[in-house]
TrEMBL record:
This protein's record includes keyword rRNA-binding: no
Stretches assigned to the U-box domain: 6-79
Keyword Ribonucleoprotein tagged: no
Protein's recorded name: von Willebrand factor type A domain containing protein
GO MF annotation terms: ubiquitin-protein transferase activity
Single GO BP term: protein ubiquitination
CDD domains per the UniProt record, alphabetical: RING-Ubox_WDSUB1-like (cd16655)
InterPro entries xrefs: Hint_dom_sf (IPR036844), Ubox_domain (IPR003613), Vint_dom (IPR039510), Vwaint_dom (IPR032838), VWF_A (IPR002035), vWFA_dom_sf (IPR036465), WD-SAM-U-box (IPR052085), Znf_RING/FYVE/PHD (IPR013083)
Coiled-coil spans in chain: 422-449
Signal peptide interval: none
The entry's keywords: Coiled coil
Amino acid sequence: MSKDNETPQEFICPITLEIMKDPVLMPDGQSYERSAIAEELNRNSVSPITKQPMSIDDAKDNVDLKQQIEKYLNKSDDSNDSQDPSKLDVEVSPINNISLAEFKARYTEDPDNHRNYLLHVSVKPEAIENRAPLHLIAMIDVSGSMDCNACQNVADFENIILTRLQLVQHSLKTIIACLSDHDMITLISFSDDAAIVLPSTLTDAAGKVLANQKVEELVTCGCTNIWSALDKGVDQAREHIGEGFNTSLLLFTDGEPNRNPPMGIVPCLREKLSGGVVNFTINSFAFGYAIESELMEEIAEVGNGVFGYCPDCTMVGTIFINFIANMIATVSPLSVLRVKNAVYDVKHKIYIYNGTTTNLMVPLKNVDDLNITLDILTTNQYFVCNDIGPIANSNEHVLFKDQQYRSKLIQLINTHKFGRNCEQAINDIKQLFNELESLTDRSEFLENIMTDLINPSDSCGQIEKSFQKDYYSKWGKYYLRSLLRFHIVEQCGNFKDKSLQLYGGELFHQTRKVANKIFMAIPAPKPIEIPAYGGRGHSRQRGGMPINMARFNDRNAGCFNGDALVSMKNGKEKKVDHLKKGDVLSNGGKVVCVVKTLNQNESKIAKAVKIGNALFTPYHPIKVDGNWIFPIDYAKPELYAVDFWYNLILEGAGSATIGGIEAVTLGHEKKDGVCNHPYFGTNQVLKALMKYDGYNKGEIEINNKLTAKRDPDTNLIIEYY
C-alpha cells in the first residue's frame, strides 16, 4: 500500500517508500520492510542510511510498530479508497435493462452561422447498482523493440532501465488485480505471428494467479504483426457473444507493423467486423516515438475505443489506471444515437456511463421534424427522444456552452492533427483561447480547456506546445490523436490533461483512486542497473533498490539551493547565491562561474533532500562517511519551494562543502561510484557552458528548458542544448 499525505512517517519504509507490512528494527535505529532491507543487505552489507555495517541476522521484529500499522490500516478500511476494487460495494452481474433518467435535445441558433442551428443531445441512465462483468482481451506486442528502455531521455530516471514490456506487464498486473471473480481475461502475444497465451479465463483467485504467471512469462522476439493479433482478438471476443460481458480488446505496441496483409490493417479490420456481430470495443495503446499514429487512431476509431499514448515510463501508470476505471464505470460502450430529419440523417456511436451524462453536439440546417432515437446494442433496447426544444433556462445554457466548446476543441484538433500547417494551427488555438477568455460566465470545464490550450507551465498548454517546431514530429502528433479520442468518447484518460478531469461519475473516480494504489503497491519490476549521475556500476544487471511506482506518474529534476551555506577559505560561510568569481572555498577551489538554473515548475515546488541548511536534488552526489552516495540514499526527499537551482564551476577543485557536507561540482572528473558521469563529471559540460553569455563574468543564468541528449546504450546525458 502506498503512502498518502496523512500516513504517519514512521509507518513508511525508507527503501520502498510504502507502508510496511512486516517491519523489522535494524542496528541503525531504523525500521524497514523485511524483504526490502534483506535484498539491500544482500548487495551491500551496510545501512542504506548511516552506512554502518549490518546483516539481516541483526533484524528484530518490530511488533509494536506492526500492531500500530495494522490498527491504522483497519481504521482506514472504512473508506472506499483503501478497498480492493473487486470488493467495492458494486455487484458484478450482466446489465440486461437500462432505464434513462434523461434523454433530451436542446437547440439554438449557431452563433458562428445564424442560418444554422446547434443541437445538443444528452443521455443519462438511472442509477445502476451493479456493473457488467468485463472481458478484457489483451494483445501484447513482444517484438524485439519491446525490450527498449522505457526510461530513455526521462529526467530523474537516468539510473534505471525498465523495458517497455516490463511496464506493460506491470500495468496488466494492475488491471488483473482490479478485476472481480466474475470478470474474464484473455492474453494474446504477437511478434511474427499471434499466439493465445491464456485462453479466456475468469479472474477468480486461481485465475488471477494463472494470468499473472502468463504475463510474467512473456519474452521478446521477432517482428510486429499487428493484424495477426487483431484477427485472433476479434475471434476470441465473438466466442462469448450473449454471455453478458462488457468486452474490450486492448492492443499494446511500440512500433510500426512490418508484417501487413495486402489490403492493409484497417481495411481488413473493417471487413472482419462487418462479417459478424460486433459486441466489443477495440483500444490501442502505443509506446515511444516510433509508432504509426494514424494507424493507432484509426484502429481505435473503427473499434469505437480510445487511443492511449505512453511516450515514456512516466505515463504508463496514469493511462492504464484511468482505463480500467473507465471500463468498470461503463454501462454500455455500444450504443447508437441517430439524429434525423429531412436534411440530416446520421448515426453516432456513443458510450453510456454510470452516474454521468453522455453528450452529442450536432450542427443542423434546420430543426424541423426532428426524430432522435437511441439504440443500446448491449441490452437490445430502443428509445425515442420526446423532449426536444429550444434552450429553456440558464442551467441548460451553461451545459450547452460546455458542449459547444468541447465540439470546437474536437474540430480544431481533428482539422490540424496531420500537422500540415502548424503555424495556422497555433493561430487557431490562440483564436479559440481568446474566444473563451472573452466569456464572462466560464464554467470549470471551459477554464480547464483554456489551461490545456495555452499555458506557459511545462505541464499545461500541451495542445499549443504540440504544434511547436520539433515537438509535433516527436510527440505532438501522437498526443493530439490520443487527446482527441478521449474527448470524443468523454473519458478521462490520464491525470494530467485538465480538460479531461471532469469526465466520469462517482464510480469512475472511486475506482480510479483504488486502481492508483494498486498500481503503486504491486511489486515493481526489477530494473537493470546502469551508471547514473553517477550510477552503481557499469554493468547492466537486473535488481537494485525496489522502485516506488509512484515515480512513473511524475518527474522532477535539479543541484543545490541558493540559500545553502558554502565553507570559505577564511573560515566563514557564504550563501551559494552570494558567491562571486574569484572567491576561494575552504578546499582551495576558486570560483570560476556560478551556474543558476530556473526551476521550470510553475509552482516552484521541487523534490529535494535537506541536509543541514542545504537542499540537494535526489541524485546529486554527496560524500557521507567517506563514501560518495546519492542524497536519496541518505534521506527521503520532501517537497520544497525553490526558485533556482545552483551549481559551481571551480578551478583547482571538483567539490565544495555545502551545508556542512561535501558535494560534487561541475566537471569534477571524479570516477568513484555514483560520481562517474560522461557529461557532468567531465570537461564536456564546461565546454558547453563556456558558450553562454555571462561565463566570463562569472555567472550564467539559464531560464529556458533544456533538451537532454542521451547515450543510447547507457541512457546517460551526454549533452544539453
